[in-house]
Design brief:
Layout: H1 3-10, E1 13-16, E2 27-30, H2 34-40, E3 46-49, H3 54-63, E4 67-70, H4 78-86, E5 90-93, H5 98-107, E6 111-112
Parallel strand pairs: 2-3, 2-6, 3-4, 4-5
Antiparallel strand pairs: 1-5
Length: 124
Amino acid sequence: MTIKDMVDILHARVLCGEERLDTPVYTACCSDLMSDVLAFVNEKTVLITGLANPHVLRTADMLDLKCLVYVRSKVPNDEIIEQADEQGLAVIATRETAFTACGLLYSAGLRGVPIEWPESEEAT
């Protein structure tokens, strides 16, 4: 899947990074808690979020993310969009809820970031 495919699937609007729409993506993470993203994401991926503040950009920079997807019609301010573009991110926005956006992308073949659980922990 490419970022362009995501734009089509989510009926999203491209806020920046149109020249990066051919970038392939293989995994995604959805969270409004950047501490969870930092704890569980360990590869270049897509972040789906409704949090439109500078913390998202710092997280994206630390993890070398490829794309930010803003859900629930959230749109960051112009300063954040400019900084995202400088960081080399594609940024898109959709009206879909996070749950629906994740479901649509999963149905189209995009998978979640694999999480490695310690052997001593069992799923509860």
